[in-house]
Specification:
395 residues; alpha/beta; Metallo-beta-lactamase, Chain A; Rossmann fold; seven-stranded mixed sheet; six-stranded parallel sheet; 22 strands; binds MU-OXO-diiron
Length: 395
């Protein structure tokens, strides 16, 4: 399958309808994904990125239907991660001398992955590659989200090839943002940002300002996953700027796990207390062992306050909550408040451990945590409700 974007640019990627997990098992992809590769045929012919390794042979066969591979003058590797570089080994068997343009860090990553000494050409921000009537302008995008990441901008057509940035894990045979369900599109875009780009928000803001400062028209943004932004393409840039500024909505998210329902009852009582404060917060409760972890992270991203709950087990916390804390620590959320709660029968360390984890993850403690002994009785339920009310009133 290929798709003409215009007379000179053809999408030659792969739509992966079946994908349900990405980065190993780390990222859920409920709506599949795509690996977008673009072929530009001006006086010179350029291939931008490839596809994930399992589709390498299919990609090459497909590409051969579009062009004699020997006519490809340049390959651009905007990013070395396997989902975009995975077909390079197969491709380079066919055209071993073709230059691969990438950043200095890109060479390190590609050599690290494939142990090949291909014909690499290092590019830096502002370097230009003439294709004839158009030029590709390179823009390093260090740590968005790998050290090697890079964008390139095509003059004439005014297209930004942004690689992972502005992408979504979203399989669709419809290529453009104006053709798909907007709620699905934005759900996947914010999930992508929350789970992948959050730690790099300062760099996102800086890079966007740098690109906007170039004062070039942008008629389309072509990311390496999901749909292409052609209708008001800067809408996603505006969203990224919003998300990069320690985004939050009027939402409180309660994430817990439970063994015999005591911690669940505490969670629900806390939610009732929050509601009784009458401040109109959207309150969402998730059992971490029954809910997709990346979906929970997306809700944490949207929250002003996060409450974590676990019973005590073997002097510790339940493993789903330990995993949740580990994710939250890595994503380095900013400007969010948090507190902990949990039931116990004897030693009762869970609230202390959750609180420590929240502090290590950079959350501001909104209150001391609340513990409930055994199955919460009426007094304990009232304590939880009062805790919820007090904490909602404080933010
Ligand atoms: Fe889509 Fe960072 O790879």
């Amino acid at each position: 399958m290929s798709y003409k974007i215009n007379d000179t640019i053809t999408w030659v990627g792969k739509i992966d309808w079946e994908l349900r997990k990405f980065h190993g098992e780390e990222y859920s992809t409920h709506r599949g994904s795509s690996y977008n590769s673009y072929l530009i045929q001006d006086e010179k012919t350029v291939l931008i990125d490839t596809v994930w390794k399992p589709f390498a042979k299919e990609f090459i066969e497909n590409l051969k239907k579009e062009i004699d591979l020997k006519k490809i003058d340049y390959i651009i590797a905007n990013h070395a991660e396997i989902d975009h570089s995975g077909a390079l080994p197969e491709l380079m068997k066919e055209i071993p001398d073709t230059p691969i343009y990438c950043t200095a860090n890109g060479i390190k990553s590609l050599k690290g992955h494939y142990h090949q000494d291909w014909n690499f050409v290092t590019v830096k921000t502002g370097d230009r590659l003439s294709l004839g009537s158009r030029e590709l302008v390179f823009i390093e995008a260090r740590l968005l989200h790998w050290p090697d990441s890079m964008f390139c901008y095509l003059t004439g057509d005014n297209i930004l090839f942004s690689n992972d940035a502005f992408g979504q894990h979203y399989a669709s045979e419809r290529m453009y943002n104006d053709q798909v369900d907007q709620a699905e599109l934005y759900q996947e875009a914010i999930k992508y940002y929350a789970n992948i780009l959050t730690p790099f928000s300062r760099l996102v803001e800086h890079k966007i300002n740098e690109v906007v400062g170039m004062n070039v028209p942008v008629s389309m943004i072509c990311p390496s996953h999901g749909i292409i932004w052609r209708d008001n393409p800067l809408q996603i840039v505006g969203k990224y700027l919003e998300w990069a500024k320690d985004y939050q909505e009027d939402q409180i998210t309660i994430v817990y796990d439970t063994m015999w329902d005591s911690t669940r009852k505490m969670a629900e009582a806390i939610a009732e207390g929050i509601k009784s404060a009458g401040k109109g917060f959207q309150i969402k409760l998730y059992n971490a062992s029954k809910t997709d972890k990346n979906d929970i992270i997306t809700e944490v991203f949207k929250s002003k306050l996060v409450l974590l709950g676990s019973p005590t087990i073997n002097k510790g916390i339940l493993h789903s909550m330990a995993g949740m804390l580990e994710q939250m620590k890595g994503l380095a959320f900013k400007n969010k408040k948090a507190a902990a709660f949990g039931s116990y029968g004897w030693s009762g360390e869970s609230v202390k451990l959750l609180t420590q984890g929240l502090e290590e993850a950079g959350f501001e403690l909104a209150a001391d945590g609340v513990r409930g002994l055994w199955n919460p009785d009426e007094a304990s339920i009232h304590t939880c409700m009062a805790f919820g009310k007090r904490i909602a009133e404080s933010i």
